[in-house]
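If you are new to this repository, start here. Below is one unmodified record pulled from the training split, so you can see the exact layout before writing a loader.
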Amino acid sequence: MDFCPKCQSILIPEKGERKTKLACSCGYVSNTKEAIIKEQVKVKKGVEIKQKRVILPKTRATCSKCNNKQAYYWMQQTRGSDEPETKFYECVKCSYRWRD
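And here is the target side for that same chain:
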């Protein structure tokens, strides 16, 4: 693995006219005679990415969108450390999100 002397990024193989060169996004091209690609990854178009859902606790809270009485909740620090945490809700039925 080689790094760019200008910006310290990883040099990526780039196929030229007759040989493979190592190039950087900043424009630097290495003068090496040989570059070996050990692994190629091809991404198929239209691949569905499934999100892993974290199990959250439920509480009694009324959704303003569908009037459901249950919601998931979690707390997150959104401001400075001297401020209280913000409580977020997500409706169990329609997945509408709001904060308290």
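Two things worth knowing about this chain: The chain has two domains: 1-37, 58-99. The chain has a mean pLDDT of 80.
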